[in-house]
Design a protein that fits this description.
The complex is a heterodimer of chains A (about 220) and B (about 120). Chain A has about 220 residues and is of the alpha/beta class. Chain A contains seven helices and seven strands. Classes of the chains: A alpha/beta (about 220), B mainly alpha (about 120). Chains A and B meet through β1, β2, β3, β4 and α7 of A and α2, β2, α3, α4 and α5 of B. The complex binds guanosine-5'-triphosphate (GTP) and magnesium ion (MG).
């Protein structure tokens, strides 16, 4: 019973700030693989139970009579420094789960939408929802050896605006997954600098890879 | 708001016992990544889940890790944690970056995250 706790690497006693990034994507697209390849602990699995009166639960097939529903998700962890710990959550992107994420992932820094180019339509809903919520995200195409697409083809298929970074990755590879996360955080940083440019001084040591176009 | 069946695989009775039948009120303060720290030793007669939590949290431990380790839904764990917090047996280090709708995270925090990721 204690096996889960005994091989668990403890955080430093000074850790006091938990941060969140979500990896979202269709079934079998590599979410758990990506979490595992960068996490300092073996990915753990847990579940959240949600109670919601009315419409959201009614959409769930065959659970009309229940007042609650349960969704499983996995997560990993990266200790960033003596105080900050980044948690990565792998979350299914299917439509019927999204009302759960609204609560589960509030306060998330941003999201990685993991995409299999053979099944681009699987990620439409997740992208839609993130845009709707104003959660910043990037898109990472996981290489499953599918037919080659140009960046432009993928952007068109996903109806993705030019200011959302699009990268290729191999979720099994640690440095590739790390690069995906860095791309996301650089994107967030560029966005926050844009928003806060009136109040905060520029930080020359951080060079965002992509600067978003000003929206016209 | 009634919540008769908080967990799918657990008997409602067991979850009722764990939480004293309380609902979620007060436990909302616990984020998935709130770090919990024990403020006391487990005492004889304590509920076994409380003992496990106090043992795990001698070092800071995120709510979501506690839930995974106990094999209980996060919502149930939040309720147990608010009991422990109310009685001073744990303390909670909440995330400093709670993102309000339409507000981006603080650039300083993001820079720290970048430094940490690049050092991986
Ligand atoms: N070729 C290739 N295979 C991958 C890659 N990433 C993951 N896989 C494989 O794809 C399969 C599914 O990966 P998972 O990480 O379990 O995917 P998931 O998104 O967590 O799946 P669900 O949680 O079931 O939705 C596994 O067999 C992985 O080894 C990749 O970048 N390239
Ligand atoms: Mg998975």
């Amino acid at each position: 019973m204690d096996s889960a706790t005994s091989d668990r690497a403890a955080l430093q006693a000074t850790a006091d700030n938990g941060l969140k990034i979500v990896v979202v994507g269709g079934f079998g697209v590599g979410k758990t693989t990506m979490v595992r390849s960068v996490s300092e602990i073996r990915p753990l699995n847990t579940e959240e139970t949600m109670t919601r009166a009315g419409e959201a639960v009614d959409h769930l097939d065959g659970v009309q009579s229940k007042t609650s529903t349960t969704v499983a998700f996995d997560f990993g962890r990266i200790s960033l420094d003596e105080r900050s710990v980044l948690y990565l959550f792998g979350a299914p992107g299917q439509e019927r789960f999204w009302f759960l994420w609204d609560r589960l992932f509030s306060g998330t820094l941003g999201a990685v939408v993991l995409v299999d180019t053979r099944r681009l339509a699987d990620s439409w809903y997740a992208i839609d929802r993130l845009e709707h919520h104003g959660t910043p995200f990037i898109v990472a195409c996981n290489d499953f050896g599918g037919p080659l697409h140009t960046e432009q083809q993928i952007r068109e298929a996903l109806d993705l605006s030019d200011d959302v970074p699009l990268v290729e990755c191999d979720a099994r590879d640690r440095s590739s997954s790390k690069y995906v996360l860095i791309t996301l955080v650089e994107h967030l940083h560029a966005l926050s600098q844009g928003n806060a440019s009136a109040t905060s001084a520029a930080r020359p040591e951080i060079t965002p890879e992509k600067t978003p176009e000003p929206t016209s | 708001m009634t919540r008769r069946r908080p967990g799918r695989d657990d008997a409602p009775d067991r979850l009722y016992t764990l939480t004293g039948g309380r609902s979620r009120s007060g436990s909302d303060a616990f984020d998935l990544v709130t770090l919990v720290v024990s403020e006391c030793e487990p005492a004889p007669g304590m509920q076994s889940e409380h003992v496990t939590i106090l043992r795990m949290c001698t070092r800071p431990t995120a709510v979501v890790e506690i839930a995974a380790s106990l094999g209980l839904p996060v919502s149930i764990v939040r309720i147990m944690l608010s009991d422990l917090l109310d009685t001073g047996r744990i303390s909670a280090r909440h995330p400093r970056t709670a993102r309000v709708a339409d507000r981006l995270p603080d650039p300083d925090i993001l820079e720290q995250v970048l430094v940490g990721l690049r050092n991986l």
